Each structure stands twice: as C-alpha cells, then as structure tokens.
UniProtKB/TrEMBL annotation:
<dbReference type="InterPro" id="IPR002758">
    <property type="entry name" value="Cation_antiport_E"/>
</dbReference>
<dbReference type="GO" id="GO:0005886">
    <property type="term" value="C:plasma membrane"/>
</dbReference>
<feature type="transmembrane region" description="Helical">
    <location>
        <begin position="66"/>
        <end position="86"/>
    </location>
</feature>
<keyword id="KW-1003">Cell membrane</keyword>
<keyword id="KW-1133">Transmembrane helix</keyword>
<keyword id="KW-0472">Membrane</keyword>
<keyword id="KW-0812">Transmembrane</keyword>
<dbReference type="Pfam" id="PF01899">
    <property type="entry name" value="MNHE"/>
</dbReference>
<dbReference type="GO" id="GO:0008324">
    <property type="term" value="F:monoatomic cation transmembrane transporter activity"/>
</dbReference>
<feature type="transmembrane region" description="Helical">
    <location>
        <begin position="5"/>
        <end position="22"/>
    </location>
</feature>
<feature type="transmembrane region" description="Helical">
    <location>
        <begin position="28"/>
        <end position="45"/>
    </location>
</feature>
<protein>
    <submittedName>
        <fullName>Multicomponent Na+:H+ antiporter subunit E</fullName>
    </submittedName>
</protein>
Length: 164
C-alpha cells in the first residue's frame, strides 16, 4: 500500500509539471488518475515486479543525463540539416542504414527508435524480427559506419542506462 501512495505522489508531481501549473488541484488530479491510467499498462512491458520507488529515484539522474544528451544531439542534427539546406548545391546521399543495437527489451528498443526519429535528418523505419537491428533512413548516409557509431555511442548508451 505504501508503494502505491508513493506512486500516486510521484505521478501527481509529474502531472503538475506536464500540465505546466503546479497547484493542489492539478496535483490531486494526477495523484488520483495517474495510477488508474497506468495500472492496466504495467504488465504490457513486463514491469509487474520491477518497479519500486527507489528504482524510480535511482533512474532520475540517468534520465536527466539522457534528456541532456538527446537535447544536444537534436541541436547538432538541426545544425547539420540547416547546413545541408543552406548550401547552394545540395550534395547528400540519402539512404537506409542497418544499425545493430544492444538493447533487447521492448522499452529500450522503443526508446532508441523514438530517440533516433526525434533527431532531425534520421527516421527509424523498422526493427528486425530478432530485435537486433534497427533500419534507419538518414538524409545523408554518405558515412554509414559513422552514423552507426554515433547512434550506438551517443544515443543508445544513454538509453541503456536510463531505460534498462
């Protein structure tokens, strides 16, 4: 029971920040409706016994680091796309690249796929049946190995820390 009270408080705080207004009414709505909405989806990703308040608290610094790295990668990708667009002669080689991934859980695969899609110039198209490869369309695939290394070293590393 204590765990659910902590979840409710945590979800109430998250709701306040998502809503943009921190007040008692918003907190109460998030604290009451959060567990009701989240409960049916816990088993969807295999979280039945893994979630605890302390696990959530331990993940917060890793999540902050992940979002910081994601923000930096989005900025770098925006600059790269802007350079491509502003060049008088557009010299790009778009293509689809197979990116091997280390994560094996559905949550990790979803997080890395969405992270790749959020960065301008790349789009996750598919995941292989064995969940070991993501197929990524890149606006400039002239250096496929460099792109794979960038995804593995700059993005997937932090996804693994934050979501697994």
């Amino acid at each position: 029971m204590k765990r659910y009270i902590l979840y409710s408080i945590f979800l109430g705080l998250i709701w306040c920040f998502v809503h943009g207004t921190v007040n008692f009414n918003n907190f109460l709505i998030g604290a009451l409706l959060g567990p009701i909405v989240i409960r049916p989806f816990r088993s969807l990703y295999g979280f039945e016994n893994k979630i605890s308040y302390m696990n959530i608290v331990r993940k917060i610094p890793k999540l902050i680091r992940f979002f910081y790295v994601l923000f930096i990668e989005i900025i770098k990708a925006n600059v790269m796309v802007a350079k491509i667009i502003l060049q008088p002669k557009i010299d790009i080689k778009p293509g689809i690249i197979a990116v091997p991934i280390r994560t094996k859980t559905d949550v990790g695969i979803t997080a890395i796929a969405n992270t790749i899609t959020l960065t301008p110039g790349t789009l996750t198209i598919d995941v292989s049946d064995n969940k070991e490869v993501l197929y990524v369309h890149a606006i400039d695939a002239s250096d496929p190995q460099g792109l794979c290394d960038s995804i593995r070293d700059d993005l997937e590393k932090y996804v693994l820390e934050a979501f697994e």
